[in-house]
Design a protein that fits this description.
- 74% of the residues lie in helices and 0% in strands.
- It is mainly alpha-helical and 675 residues long.
């Protein structure tokens, strides 16, 4: 007996709303006499999302991308239609350029550029042989897609809309909870293997939460409930990013103190025990201020050596900064609740870091763009050489496939899965195009005929595990309806257009396999080289002090890299993930210490600190070039600067930055300063 699929209420609701929006768009485009009304139906499904804010953002960006792609088509096709080779190259270069730009914008806005690229291919290639109709067709296509976007936005915003608030606030509270748990584990328990494993999990979750929070917040301007708290949301992301290196530095400093003194000093342990309540959600301002004062006094505690004194100063400085960051985080979280409730919140004039701090791989983006250009050009060359009447579908398929999967490390498995779903959709497409459509004499009959397939496929599209296959099935059926003239379709045109589409998809997959597929190890190495490049840039900019935004931007980028590294290293086992995360956090602390030292360099001897920055830059530049790390000559230089700072009673942040550099660059160095 075959078991029927069981769908959740959310899946059924998403499918029903998507279908209603699609039928509404199909009806309007048919009544307006548009040539391909199924484009509107397909667009309504493409912009659909369980969250209403995502639908609105995708709708806006898809319309802008389509408009830009149509404009490019209107310019390129008529002027180059007399030279098929030049036109093919121009359209392929446009697809590659738009794909490159989209991959350098890891936000919802990237949708504009990707759509602008392959929309030009979808509109331009079928009209190569009829350039005179280009403008009318482009206007019709924009109108059809605009209707689909409008209908999807209206239906998903009015019919039981799901807001972004629960998802975003849930991630935000989880990130704050992970940070609180990390700090609680640090201050309340003695070091054990179980504690180390638990804190490693805290660190990874926090990095993933912060990156997820930044990506989710790109849709905040489109959410009617959250938009009033946008400033506080952006500021909280930056504060969480700045909190992470401080937490990691406190952890490292406590480990160094335990190694140097045989355990946590009694006065520090009693201070932690007496002032543990400042982390609680119910903590008062007075309690937080008492904790800050007590932590500041740790620096003046008993020290048997200059190194232990330096560690005490480092710990006191880090804890004081940690209290300030945590207090800011809790204040911002309260402001967000106030903004959602419609109450006035504090005006923040400092610009938040936003999404410009996320990790970008320009080399991989360029490689993806070149792959799209080559795949499209190869399909066009085959089309021109054979004179195949349906060759335009081949060029379209190559452009779309190369663009659609470009964000993956190895797009080929996903391409093959999508192609398989397209093959499974062929019988359904043939049934509708050649059997149902000629018999559907009114709109109501058409809706009844197509409802079973699209309602079921819509439920599977709402399921992350099956969304890719369901999307392939949907594109197979809806794409055939959109690209075919359903009034005159026959077996020859159906088989020819679908075969050309599959050939284009196979060409895209093969070119991608040769040019673009990269392994996890390759990506991990590039992420690490990008980190060393950033560290070298931080040291090179030592000629002028940097503000806190530079430090926070580096911290956010490093946390994003930790989030990117974790799933790529996971197949190697939990130990490999732990080592990689620990190494990335150490590099994060190095960047934070370099930025702090730059801000306080005026308190240190000018020539030695300038030399230190130059040598740091050279070391990291060498690592970018592939040379092994050569930090050893830096140790005596850092020790001399640190001793001079202790003797001169230099400001604590400068001492803390030097201690952090010593610990992070030389974690196994002797616990004694060498003059």
């Amino acid at each position: 007996m075959i078991a029927l699929p069981r769908f959740s209420r959310q899946e059924l609701l998403f499918s029903l709303k998507s279908f209603v929006a699609a039928m509404f768009a199909l009806y309007l485009s048919s009544r307006f006499g548009l040539p391909r009304p199924f484009w509107a139906m397909m667009t309504a499904y493409i912009v659909a999302h369980p969250l209403a804010s995502h639908v609105r953002s995708k709708a806006l960006y898809r319309f802008l991308g389509t408009l830009l792609g149509c404009a490019a088509t209107v310019v390129l096709v008529p002027s180059l239609s007399g030279s098929p080779e030049l036109l093919s190259l121009a359209l392929a270069l446009w697809v590659g350029l738009c794909l490159y730009v989209s991959l350098l914008d890891r936000s919802a806005r990237s949708y504009v550029f990707m759509l602008a690229g392959y929309s030009a291919a979808l509109i331009g290639f079928p009209l190569v042989e009829a350039p005179a109709a280009m403008f009318d067709t482009a206007v019709a296509r924009v109108t059809e897609i605009g209707l689909g976007i409008l209908c999807a936005s209206v239906v998903h915003s009015i019919a039981l809309p799901a807001g972004l608030g629960p998802s975003l606030l849930g991630v935000m509270d989880r990130a704050l909870g992970d940070a609180r748990q990390w700090l609680t584990d640090l201050l309340r328990e003695p070091p054990t293997e179980a504690k180390d494993a638990r804190m490693a999990a805290d660190r990874q979750r926090l990095a993933l939460d912060i990156t997820q929070l930044r990506l989710l917040s790109t849709h905040v301007p489109f959410d009617t409930d959250l938009r009033w708290a946008r400033g506080a949301i952006d500021a909280l992301q930056d504060r969480l990013a700045a909190l992470t290196p401080e937490l990691s530095a406190v952890e490292d400093c406590l480990q160094a103190l335990c190694a140097a003194t045989g355990g946590v000093p009694d006065d520090i342990g009693s201070t932690f025990a007496q002032h543990a309540g400042w982390l609680a959600p119910s903590a008062t301002n007075a309690g937080v201020e008492k904790a800050r004062t007590a932590f500041r006094a740790i620096a003046d505690g008993p020290a048997a050596s200059a190194w232990i004194r330096a560690l005490r100063i480092d710990l006191a400085t880090r804890l004081e900064d940690l209290v300030a960051h945590w207090e800011a985080c809790t204040t911002l979280r309260s402001d967000i609740d106030a903004g959602i409730a419609g109450n006035p919140v504090a005006l923040r004039r400092t610009a938040a870091l936003g999404r410009r701090v996320l990790h970008l791989d320009r080399g991989l983006a360029l490689r993806s763009a070149i792959t799209a250009v080559l795949g499209t050009c190869l399909s066009c060359a085959l089309w021109i050489a054979t004179g195949w009447p349906f060759g335009s579908a081949m060029a379209m398929g190559a452009a779309v496939f190369c663009s659609f999967f470009a964000t993956l490390d190895d797009p080929v498995p996903a391409m093959h899965k999508f192609i398989t779903a397209l093959l499974w959709s062929l019988p359904v497409s043939a049934f509708y195009v050649l059997g149902i459509m000629p018999l559907a004499h009114d709109f109501g009959m058409l809706v009844l005929c197509i409802a079973p397939v699209f309602l079921v496929v819509g439920c599977y599209m709402a399921r992350p595990a099956s969304s890719l296959s369901a999307l392939g099935m949907f594109f197979g059926v809806a794409g055939t309806l959109a690209l075919q003239d359903t009034a005159t379709a026959d077996w020859v045109s159906f088989i020819g257009s679908n075969l050309a589409l599959f050939v284009g998809a196979v060409i895209a997959a093969r070119v991608t396999a040769l040019m673009r597929s990269v392994g996890r190890d390759w990506t991990v190495r590039r992420i690490r080289r990008a980190t060393w490049h950033d560290l070298a840039d931080l040291a090179d900019l030592a000629a002028r002090p940097q503000d806190a935004s530079a430090r926070d931007a580096f911290a956010s980028r490093m946390l994003d890299r930790i989030a990117l590294l974790a799933p790529r290293i996971a197949p190697a086992g939990p130990e490999a993930v732990r080592i990689a995360a620990h190494r990335a956090l150490r590099e994060l602390r190095v960047g934070a210490d370099i930025a702090a030292l730059q801000r306080h360099r005026a308190r240190l001897p000018a020539d030695p600190v300038s030399r230190l920055f130059r040598e740091l830059a050279l070391v990291f530049r060498a690592q970018v070039a592939g040379a092994p790390p050569r930090h050893a000559p830096l140790l005596p230089h850092i020790d001399r600067l640190l001793l001079d700072a202790l003797v001169a009673d230099t400001e604590r942040p400068a001492v803390a930055a030097l201690v952090g550099l010593r610990r992070n660059l030389f974690p196994t160095a002797p616990a004694a300063l060498q003059p």
